[in-house]
From TrEMBL:
A Pfam family this chain is assigned to: Aldolase
Keyword Lyase tagged: yes
Classification of source organism: Eukaryota, Viridiplantae, Streptophyta, Embryophyta, Tracheophyta
InterPro entries: Aldlse_KDPG_KHG, Aldolase_TIM
Coiled-coil intervals, chain numbering: none
Gene3D superfamilies linked: Aldolase class I
Protein name: KDPG and KHG aldolase
Key words, A-Z: Carbohydrate metabolism, Lyase
Pathway annotation: Carbohydrate acid metabolism
Quaternary assembly: Homotrimer.
Family from the record: Belongs to the KHG/KDPG aldolase family.
Species the sequence originates in: Musa troglodytarum
GO terms, molecular function: lyase activity
């Protein structure tokens, strides 16, 4: 039964008076040792402590009612807050097309050329040899025109730009149609600009600290560079122990024969440059060799998947 306001004040006064009387009795007991032998019961014993304490609390606090949310169910404040956040949170952006393509192919071919024509023909030779994900290095003369041409001629392939060092070049590449960008390090401006877009950014990292920083900043997949200098497959294997949930791309100095080892050690994909676009073949514009090396690389990836 709810107490009236007057009743509350009366009960408070009663409890205060009882407490004062008890305090006085205790003082008398201390001043008169003989009083300690008395078995007179304290006035506080005459009250039901639990009952009166609840009555006193009811004078100051409204009755507790668990918050209702998520369809009228009674939830804890934390659960209610989580339910409300989930209900109002925006839908997660769709994954860029390049990410599943990279994870599926596990191979990115990287073209470096002294001129746009050589880059275009070398890229075409690699794509016709079975490569499905390819990047042109940003420093290649006419790189934006090469990107546009490849997207037109190979619409089912994923074409990107590599060695992107600043946000201005990134915007130019995206405007030309690049589906992913890759850097040797992490350029935060690029990472932030491309979040929640359909263009994938693959920042580079070397140490565990750099990997964790890039991932926590929003990177979906991270390039480990220069991997051969850091220890090759063993370094990837060690790096994946604390970060099994972070996809990584091994890059630099990887040969066709070592593709399977990198994948078995935990790399989600590898970058091949000279292993496909052999320097002498590029210099002589021997695109048949590039076609053959591209075909060999894709076969090696397929065999690694069966291990």
């Amino acid at each position: 039964m709810k107490l009236k306001r007057v009743g509350c004040h009366s009960r408070i006064s009663q409890l205060i008076d009882v407490a004062a009387l008890s305090h006085t009795s205790q003082r008398r007991s201390l001043g008169n040792p003989s009083a300690g032998t008395s078995r007179a019961r304290s006035p506080l014993r005459r009250l039901s402590v639990g009952k009166d304490a609840m009555a006193l609390a009811s004078c100051f606090s409204p009755p507790f009612r668990p918050p209702l949310c998520a369809g009228g169910r009674s939830l804890s404040p934390v659960a209610c807050a989580c339910a409300q956040t989930a209900a109002t949170a925006p839908a997660a952006p769709s994954l860029p097309k390049a990410l599943p393509a990279i994870l599926d192919s596990r191979l990115i071919a990287c073209v470096r050329a002294q001129d746009g024509n050589t880059a275009m023909e070398a890229a075409c030779a690699a794509l016709s040899g079975g490569i499905s994900v390819l990047e042109i290095v940003m420093s290649t003369p006419g790189v934006l025109e090469v990107i546009r041409g490849l997207l037109k001629d190979y619409p089912s392939s994923v074409i990107g730009v590599g060695t992107v060092l600043n946000a201005e070049d990134a915007r130019k590449a995206v405007k030309a149609g690049a589906q992913f960008l890759m850097s040797p390090g992490t350029v935060m401006e690029i990472l932030l600009d491309l979040q929640n877009t359909d263009v994938l950014y693959i920042p580079g990292a070397m140490t565990p600290t750099e990997v964790l920083f890039a991932y926590n900043a929003g990177a979906r997949i991270i390039k480990i560079y220069p991997v051969s200098v850091l220890g090759g497959c063993d370094y990837i294997k060690a790096l994946k122990k604390p970060f099994p949930h972070i996809p990584v791309v091994a890059s630099q100095g990887i040969t066709t024969d070592s593709i399977g080892n990198y994948i078995e050690c935990g790399a989600s994909a590898v970058v091949l440059s000279d292993a496909i676009f052999e320097k002498e073949a590029m210099r002589q514009r021997n695109f048949d060799v590039i076609h053959r090396l591209a075909h060999l690389a894709t076969r090696q990836v397929g065999q690694a998947g069966k291990c």
